[in-house]
Specification:
Helices cover 36% and strands 23% of the residues. By secondary structure, the chain is of the alpha/beta class. The protein is globular, with a radius of gyration of 25 Å. The structure holds 6-O-phosphono-alpha-D-glucopyranose.
């Protein structure tokens, strides 16, 4: 939530800050602002709305001119999106940008009001700005001031701070919100995430909790809260710039859907050796896999849906019990986990607050933790006992597609390896499964051939106020993801229901005004799902059916049929999700919604 950036160098920086922020808008986009040194004056421009609104405002009014400054794109937590709640916050002496939540801000605010400070915004961030001012008046020096403030504030933060007395310098510190320091030639940066700096440099430091960075155009020093200097290892980003651009597609989401075959190849290939799954490079051995009593998969949103597929597949192939849960629920329900259990955390960003909390809880309770993460060096990746990186590259669209797909790939590899380790499948069977997984990218390319069918299906749904997704088994897990995608980006209410459970209440909602998307790709359950489809058809529902291209569907079963290339049933989810993504995408486009930046959402949810 929220993206922060900072620049110190030789170039006029307002445009650089806005450009860097544009790569972070996925983190929040309800207001934006920058603060730039004009000589030794801090000049701030900020506004409610998108970055484009900030650019427009600066075009009509004043664009700060100077070679160092900080910037922010916001996802509101405390206080509605408004000009006054926008960052940067501060006064003529100190200005800050903040990502995170200051949990004790009410107490701190009361303390500051008592000292005579007046507040104009509803944000927690303004408290930090004023607290910095309070301690700066005592300490008269930035690092000591920051250290005093860190001792007071509780919660999560990544902060970019400038002091008018120190033009050309940015101070930065973080706890539980991500922050990197980009290292350029005669210019340096801070940013919440790598895509913001890629155009300028690939080298960066990962700032650890409570490390304080002092950044000038030609120097970066990092110290701890006692002022002792810390030597950091330079990280090198391998993501290419093009992957953070739209590359001719109308939206990032469509581009990312089309990147899925490549993302699978890049994720799967390094994990195969002699035709067998090979997770040993991540430290995961067959002996280790044999030893677990139970597996927990915990995550949020789309990542949790990838875990649901994982549950079906692991239980089916490896015959080990798997519990899947939502991180925000799991962390507060006093879970029964111990040293015999494996807790798998799935997270694209590696920064999701609830998932991170579960990781820490699981470690405290003695379980082994394995994370499946897309962002290298993110908190969840660093704190887990084992990490398997997915290689989706940067995912910009808020609605996740390719990240889900590569999470599925790892779920499959893990299931195959577990099944083999537990003697449930032979080496030959394992190799056959791996080989079919390797062939999935070409099957997905084939699936793109039905894109126009998905567009047509979307056109039949666009006026609906509410939809139902139904399926059984793996198709039910896929229905959940399809329903979430549609809700996120088209704002059409939908619910996903286990097809067999429908008649126990929910079918009373079904009328001719409520279309049903039925997913039926599992041979074993096909006839049962068709019976359930007939039940909704009999109540007047228009049915879009997603099934295999080997199946004949008559018009008394479905009004629109989307037919998929066939792979073995257990692997069908990797094919099935594609039309569900495309149907959601085209529905959103037809409704004229903001596909890549749906209202109220943020991609990286670093608050609980
Ligand atoms: C947010 C995003 C979702 C994502 C979820 C978990 O809600 O909008 O797309 O699935 O967070 O994020 P993570 O980074 O942990 O996968």
């Amino acid at each position: 939530m929220c993206g922060i950036v900072g620049y110190v160098g030789g170039k006029d920086c307002a445009d650089i800050l806005v450009d860097a922020l544009s790569k972070l808008e996925y983190r929040g986009y309800d207001s934006a602002g920058i603060a730039v040194f004009e000589g030794d004056r801090i000049v701030t421009e900020k506004t409610k709305g998108r970055l484009a609104d900030l650019t427009e405002k600066m075009k009509k009014g004043h664009k700060p001119s100077g070679t160092s400054g900080i910037g922010h794109t916001r996802w509101a937590t405390h206080g509605e999106p408004s000009d006054v709640n926008s960052h940067p916050h501060g006064n003529a002496k100190i200005s800050i940008v903040h990502n995170g939540i200051i949990e004790n801000y009410i107490r701190l605010k009361a303390f500051l009001i008592d000292k005579g400070y007046e507040f104009e915004s509803q944000t927690d961030t303004e408290t930090v700005a004023k607290l910095l001012d309070y301690y700066y008046n005592i300490e008269k020096e930035p690092i000591k001031t920051i250290t005093r403030v860190l001792a007071e504030i509780e919660g999560s933060y990544a902060l970019g701070i400038v002091f008018a007395d120190y033009p050309g310098k940015i101070y930065s510190v973080r706890k539980d919100s991500p922050l990197i320091v980009g290292l350029g030639e005669g210019e340096n940066f801070i940013a919440s995430d790598v895509p913001a700096i890629l155009k300028y440099t690939r080298d960066y430091y990962l700032l650890e909790c409570d490390e304080i960075a002092t950044i000038t155009s030609d120097n970066v020093t990092i110290c701890d809260i006692h002022g002792s200097e810390i030597k950091k290892e330079v990280q090198h980003a391998t993501w290419d710039i093009e992957s953070a651009e739209k590359g001719g597609y109308a939206h990032f989401m469509l581009k990312e859907i089309h990147e899925q075959p490549t993302a699978i190849k890049t994720t799967v290939s390094p994990r195969i050796m002699d035709g067998m799954p090979f997770l040993e490079e991540c430290g995961i051995t067959l002996d280790m896999l044999k030893s677990y009593r139970k597996i927990y998969i915990v995550a949020c949103g789309t990542a949790m849906h990838a875990g649901l597929v994982g549950k079906y597949v692991i239980e089916e192939l490896a015959r080990i019990e798997v519990v899947v849960d939502i991180a925000s629920e799991f962390r507060y329900r006093n879970p029964i986990i111990g040293s015999e259990d494996l807790v798998v955390l799935i997270s694209q960003s590696g920064e999701t607050a609830d998932t991170k909390a579960v990781l820490r809880l699981a470690k405290d309770m003695g379980a082994t933790t394995l994370s499946i993460v897309n962002v290298k060096g993110s908190s969840i990746a660093r704190e887990s006992d084992f990490v398997v990186y997915t290689h989706a590259g940067p995912e910009i669209s808020v609605a996740s597609t390719k990240a889900y797909m590569v999470q599925l790939s790892i779920m499959y590899l893990l299931a195959f390896e577990l099944a083999y380790a537990n003697g449930k499948i032979t080496e030959e069977e394992c190799k056959a499964l791996v080989s079919e997984l390797e062939n999935i990218p070409s099957k997905i390319e084939e699936t793109f051939g039905i894109e126009s069918d998905c567009q047509y299906a979307a056109s039949t749904l666009v006026n609906a106020e509410s939809l139902l997704y139904i399926g059984r088994g793996l198709d039910y897990a896929l229905s959940m993801e399809g329903s979430l995608k549609l809700k996120e980006i088209s704002y059409i209410h939908s619910e996903s229901y286990a097809a067999g459970e429908l008649k126990h209440g929910t079918i009373s909602l079904v009328t001719e005004d409520m279309p049903v998307i039925a997913v039926a790709t599992q041979d074993r359950l096909f006839d049962k799902t068709v019976s359930n489809i007939k039940e909704v058809k009999a109540r007047g529902a228009k049915v879009v059916m997603v099934t295999k291209n080997t199946v004949d569907v008559t018009s008394d079963v479905a009004d629109v049929v989307v037919k998929l290339p066939v792979v073995r049933d257990v692997l069908m989810p990797m094919i099935t999700v594609v039309p569900l993504q495309l149907i959601a995408y085209y529905t959103s486009v037809l409704k004229g919604c903001d596909v890549d930046k749906p209202r109220n959402l943020a991609k990286s949810v670093t608050v609980e």
